[in-house]
Amino acid sequence: DVKVTQSSRYLVKRTGEKVFLECVQDMDHENMFWYRQDPGLGLRLIYFSYDVKMKEKGDIPEGYSVSREKKERFSLILESASTNQTSMYLCASSYTGAVTYEQYFGPGTRLTVT
Amino acid sequence: AQKITQTQPGMFVQEKEAVTLDCTYDTSDQSYGLFWYKQPSSGEMIFLIYQGSYDEQNATEGRYSLNFQKARKSANLVISASQLGDSAMYFCAMREETGNQFYFGTGTSLTVIP
To answer: Does B54 have pLDDT greater than 80?
Structure first.
């Protein structure tokens, strides 16, 4: 069974704090993704990575950075958390190549910034 | 332009009835994959069904089927014999042959009424 795990289910941080969200997958997937999910807006891509140390900006990268030092781990960093970053964050992974490969998702992290 | 459009923010269906959730897509790629995911209130994203652009038959997985109309660029999800546990958000997604990204719609919230 493919497993994608995220470091926290719930997180509460203060404005201005640096926040790290960790994601680990155990299926040797090349691609990893970070989304944020807000009501009525669906899933919006923040960043994705198609290989170690490689990253691509998604639709809403402002205020976020990412790190992928190992194939199985993809970290999302909020350099200085703000209240408008309160959201559900979902990590996902997939194989590269064929369009048949689906994404596997982690359980999500509900982040509240106060 | 939106790659994936889901026009039904909310739907209601009577238990044991069938329901269709709409999805239209936009791509110029010849090869692409279409996916449906279910997200219960717990937050995890569950992969339901996949349809490839070259598949001639509509995909089916148990009570889920995909009504694929390529010329109309639609990929509607049909859930037969609805159950209370089907109450959830449903997301349509697409993966194109060019690039590694997945594109998601804004989702449809389905409520099954006893």
So the answer is: yes
Residue B64 pLDDT grade (very low, low, confident, very high; cuts 50, 70, 90): very high
Highest-pLDDT range among A1-5, A41-45, B83-87: B83-87
Q: Which of B39, B100, B104, B108 best tests the A interface by mutation, with the highest count of A CBs <10 A?
A: B100
Cα B20 to chain centroid distance, Å, stands at 9
Residue A73, Cβ density class (10 Å: 0-12 exposed, 13-18 middle, ≥19 buried): middle
Mean pLDDT of chain A: 94
The interface residues of chain B toward chain A in range 35-94, judged by CB-CB distance below 8 A, are 35, 37, 42-45, 47, 50, 52-53, 91, 93
Query: At a CB cut-off of 8 Å and minimum separation 6, what does A89 contact?
Result: A6, A21, A34, A35, A36, A37, A76, A108, A109, A110, A111
